[in-house]
Input
Amino acid sequence: LLTGMEGGAYMFESGLRRDKPARIEQGRDLIRRNLARMRRVLVSELYFVKDRDLVLEPVDLERLARSVRDTMELRAEELGVGLEVVADDGAPVLDELASRSLLVNMVEYALGACHLARALEPPAVAVKLAVINEQAELTVHAEGVRVSLDVVQGALGDHYAPLGKDRAHLSLFIANRLARRLGGCLEITTDEERGCTRFRARVPANGSS
Output
C-alpha cells in the first residue's frame, strides 16, 4: 500500500513538473485507489484491537450509509459490481466504528463474491440500514451469489480457519465477531432458486450489549 502511494505521488509530481495532465490524473487515481484500500484495511483491523471499549451513542443511519458508500464505492468500480447503499431515518445507539467495520466487511465479501460469480451482468450489491422492532438491521444483498455451507460454518464459527487457500470468508468471520461484540448476530441466507444471498446483522438499537 505504501509503495503504491509513493508511486502515485511520484507520477503526480512528475506530471506537474512536465505539464502532463494525463500523468497527473494517473498519479491522482493511483493515490485514491491506495487510500481506499488502506482505509478498508484499517477499518477491518479495528476488530483485532481487543481492549477497545465500545463507545455507544446515537448513530445517524444515513451518515453511516454515506460513510460505507464512500469507503467501498471505488472497490465496487474496480470489480465492476454495482453498489447501492440506502438507509431509513433513525439513530440507533451503537458503536459507530464497530458498526461501520461490520458493514464494510460484509460489503467487501459480497462485492468479491459477485465479481467471481458473474451470474448477472452487471452484478450488483444492495445495502440497507434500518431499525425494526428495537433492532438495528444492517443488510447486504448479493445478487447471483450462492454461499456454500462450508463458508457459512467458517464465518459463523468461534475460531477462524482458512478453507484451503481460500481466505475470502475472513471478512464474514470478522463481521460476525463484531455483530456479537455489539450484542447481536450475523445471519447468512442463500436463496438457491433465485441465486442470491442475504447477509444480515441484527444488533440491539438501544445500546445494550
Remarks:
- The first strand starts at residue 56 and ends at 58.
- The radius of gyration is 18 Å.
- The chain is about 50% helix and 20% strand.
